[in-house]
């Protein structure tokens, strides 16, 4: 049977509060986000592995606080006065480790946002001291920020994550399929995303429904 060509179209992730499943791996981080507006120093850093929910939690907080969300790499000094007029979330700060201009912009955004009485949220994979920032004043300010840590998933969170990733792609695997994947896959958010993507592509190419058998074929290929 000829295989159908598949296209790796981006899935639309559900980023609402009700879509954020709580487990031991993320409960403390969520509690810290929910403690706004009582954050120490009026700022918080969300850290965790790729795909662990940093963007999801950022959107949860933005919906709660009215914050705007920007990517660190897009920051410019000219935009700082406007951005500092509301709570602000800056995602993926480690990406500007080699961008002196973006670091300078974030430094001024940090100071002006707090001076205006608003809150600042930043995100990165690891602790701020490992972000590679070269602007000393910015580095010291972010290293002193309280961190909300998202851990690698436990079985409960991994099961829900897989189900959510499939639903984001408009797929509905049965519980047997999810249980098989959890038992046999590497335990990481990145691996969950890769497997769901590959199973989706295999389903399209082979014109087969998502099932335990198809998941096993993909995972053992």
TrEMBL record:
GO molecular function: DNA replication origin binding
Gene3D superfamilies: 1.10.8.60, P-loop containing nucleotide triphosphate hydrolases
Entry's Gene Ontology BP terms: DNA replication initiation
Gene Ontology CC terms: plasma membrane
InterPro entries assigned: P-loop_NTPase
Protein name as annotated: Chromosomal replication initiator DnaA
């Amino acid at each position: 049977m000829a295989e159908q060509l598949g296209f790796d179209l981006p899935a639309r992730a559900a980023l609402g509060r009700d879509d954020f499943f709580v487990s031991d791996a993320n409960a403390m981080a969520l509690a810290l986000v929910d403690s706004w507006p009582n954050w120490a120093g009026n700022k918080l850093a969300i850290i965790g592995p790729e795909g662990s929910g940093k963007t999801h939690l950022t959107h949860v907080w933005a919906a709660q606080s009215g914050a705007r969300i920007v990517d660190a790499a897009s920051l410019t000094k000219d935009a700082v006065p406007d951005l500092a007029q509301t709570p602000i979330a800056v995602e993926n700060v480690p990406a500007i480790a080699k961008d002196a201009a973006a670091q300078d912009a974030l430094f001024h955004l940090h100071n002006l946002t707090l001076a205006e009485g608003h809150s600042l949220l930043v995100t990165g994979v690891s602790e701020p001291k490992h972000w590679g920032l070269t602007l000393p004043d910015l580095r010291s300010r972010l290293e002193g920020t309280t961190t909300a840590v998202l851990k690698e998933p436990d079985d409960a969170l991994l099961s829900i994550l897989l189900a959510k990733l499939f639903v984001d792609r408009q797929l509905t695997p049965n519980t047997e399929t999810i249980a098989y994947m959890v038992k046999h896959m590497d335990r990481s958010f990145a691996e969950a995303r890769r497997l769901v993507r590959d199973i989706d592509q295999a389903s399209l190419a082979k014109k087969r429904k998502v099932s335990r058998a198809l998941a096993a074929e993909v995972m053992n290929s």
